[in-house]
Specification:
With about 240 residues, this protein is an alpha/beta fold. Helix content is about 50%, strand content about 10%. The chain has 2 domains: about 160 residues, Rossmann fold (3-Layer(aba) Sandwich), CATH 3.40.50.1000; about 80 residues. It has a 6-stranded parallel beta sheet, sandwiched between helices. Strand 4, helix 8 and strand 5 form a beta-alpha-beta unit. Helix 1 crosses helix 2. The chain is globular, with a radius of gyration of 18 Å. It starts with a strand and ends with a helix.
């Protein structure tokens, strides 16, 4: 079946944002743990957070830490931390964000295709952060403002991947069918989210260090990715494989 709808994760799929973002929120998470009396202190770094929480949003990380360390966090307190994290991360993104290598060529190709497929962004990150990322690298010209979906912001109840809710919401809003859509994801949680929504997934491991790409490709396949690519040049062939299946 021909693909009519392309659903792209944003962080480390369209833009090289994960390292910048996790560095930005590490200090805040350490501050929260200190304020809650976590001992010994976890001393998070951006690298540690990427390894543990890639694909999750900040609210999801807070929930995981509450469960791990057993500290309470009132809803309004969590909301305040989420806003602070967005501010810190957006400032970092605006100053140093770059697109993933090769993706712009593929977005242009899809935008100019005679069949004019629908292009959308489906992410765990907050909508304000997504728009800042797309604007910074000029990708807002590929994605209509109302076709950017956030698990943290677009849903009645905020959530995070691997919950499929944000993908199901995107399909409903776009009037798209899962069977004629494809998602592109770089993380296990994102892949699980799309798979649980019934959407075929192309895994993307390009932003990972060379010595981790094989292991991450295996992780994404185990999570349900139909095809895994290392560079965006491989994207058309990956789509063709899914259409032929």
């Amino acid at each position: 079946m021909a693909v009519k709808t392309y659903l792209f994760d944003c962080d480390n799929t369209l833009v090289l944002s994960e390292e910048l973002a996790f560095e930005g929120c590490a200090d805040l998470l350490n501050e929260i743990c200190a304020a809650k009396g976590v001992s010994p202190p976890p001393s998070f770094t951006g690298g540690k957070l990427i390894t543990e929480f890639v694909g999750q949003n900040f609210r999801g990380m807070l929930a995981s830490l509450q469960q791990r360390y057993g500290f309470p966090l009132a809803a309004d307190e969590a909301d305040g931390y989420v806003v602070r994290e967005e501010d810190v991360v957006i400032a970092r993104l605006r100053s140093g964000l770059a697109p993933c290598v090769g993706v712009e060529t593929q977005l242009k190709r899809l935008q100019q295709a005679p069949e004019r497929p629908t292009l959308a962004v489906v992410s765990s990150s907050a909508l304000r952060r997504l728009r800042a990322s797309l604007e910074t690298v000029g990708f807002d010209r590929f994605f209509a403002a109302d076709q950017v979906y956030s698990a943290a912001t677009s849903l009645p109840t905020p959530t995070s991947k691997p919950d499929p809710a944000v993908y199901l919401h995107a399909l409903e809003q776009l009037g798209a069918q899962a069977a004629s859509s494809v998602a592109v994801e770089d993380s296990r949680s994102g892949t699980l989210s799309a798979v649980r929504a019934g959407i075929p997934v192309i895994g993307y491991v390009g932003p990972y260090p060379a010595d981790r790409q094989d292991s991450m490709a295996a992780v994404l396949r185990e999570a349900g990715a139909r095809v895994v690519i290392r560079h965006w040049d491989e994207f058309p062939q990956a789509v063709a494989e899914i259409e032929a299946a």
